[in-house]
Design goal:
By secondary structure, the chain is an alpha/beta fold. The protein folds into two domains: 139 residues, Rossmann fold; 103 residues, Rossmann fold. The protein contains ten helices and ten strands. A six-stranded parallel β-sheet has the order 4-3-1-2-9-10, sandwiched between helices. It has a four-stranded parallel β-sheet with strand order 6-5-7-8. β7, α9 and β8 form a beta-alpha-beta unit. α2 packs across α3 and α8 crosses α9. The longest helix is centred in the N-terminal third of the chain and has 17 residues. The two termini are 34 Å apart. D-glutamic acid binds next to α3. The site of D-glutamic acid has 16 residues, from α3.
Length: 248
């Protein structure tokens, strides 16, 4: 687990391409309710998974600048795609502590009794081979690009069929499946239906650890807001949550 120790008051900034990183926010609010959270989803530029490294670096920097303007003390990259492609670059460019979403999960996989590991993630994450290159066990990596548009509600494909198509071949091969994109915990029930109960699903958010206390507020910003997005956010975080659109 990753632990950040610091002052009593902690403003935690998180960013993703859209609603996926809200799964990370939700896990952190539950485990560390005292902290202040500032979330940014770059819905204007979604999806990130099909973008190249240079474009991802440019957008990630812009997202971090937005959060720095909100006076955050710590940044969590609540996006597997940016974590796998830009972490070193971002750490070189900013002095603020930055936690990525993937390293804590890799640590968990290396330190525990998993033998055969499946990873489903965006094309950009899979092409980086960050899991295969850092885990000394059998790792099957699968790019699942049709899922983010489905989860954001902007694709009309059949979710269950798409999941089956991607994961069917893994069923007899793995004992654990990493949800390698932060959008995927939002469809974990559907994934479970295809894989059955014997394969454990790992939500990367669960392995991030912050050791701080603050006063407990949540601010959520997106670069493009419509009714569908607001409904999606409420489904994840509850009806009382408010979102703001920013000029990006
Ligand atoms: N939720 C992000 C990830 O974890 C990005 C998905 C996308 O925009 O393609 O990779």
């Amino acid at each position: 687990m990753y632990t950040i120790r610091g002052s009593e008051m902690m403003r935690v900034g998180l960013f993703d391409s859209g609603i996926g990183g809200l799964t990370v926010l939700k896990s952190l609010i539950k485990r560390y309710p005292e902290n202040d959270y500032i979330y940014f989803g770059d819905t204007l530029n979604l999806p990130y998974g099909s973008k190249n490294k240079e474009e991802l670096k440019r957008l990630a920097k812009k997202n971090i600048e937005f959060l720095l303007d909100k006076n955050v003390d710590l940044i969590i990259i609540a996006c597997g795609t940016v974590s796998s492609n830009c972490l070193d670059y971002l750490k070189e460019n900013y002095s603020i502590p930055i936690i990525d979403i993937i390293s804590p999960t890799i640590k968990e996989l290396n330190n525990n009794e998993y033998n055969s590991i499946g990873v489903m993630a965006t094309e950009a994450t899979i092409n980086s081979h960050i899991f295969k290159n850092n885990i000394n066990k059998t790792v099957y990596e699968i790019a699942t690009p049709k899922l983010v548009p489905l989860i954001e509600g902007v694709s009309t494909d059949n979710l269950n069929e798409v999941i089956r198509e991607y994961l069917e071949d893994l069923i007899d091969k793995i004992d654990v499946l990493v949800l390698g994109c932060t959008h995927y915990p939002l469809i974990s029930l559907e994934i479970k239906k295809v894989l059955g109960n014997d394969i454990k699903l790992l939500n990367m958010a669960d392995y991030i650890c912050i050791d701080n206390n603050g006063k407990g507020t949540v601010e959520i910003y997106f670069s493009k807001v419509d009714e569908l997005l607001i409904n999606n956010v409420k489904k994840i975080l509850g009806n009382t949550i408010k979102v703001k659109e920013i000029e990006y």
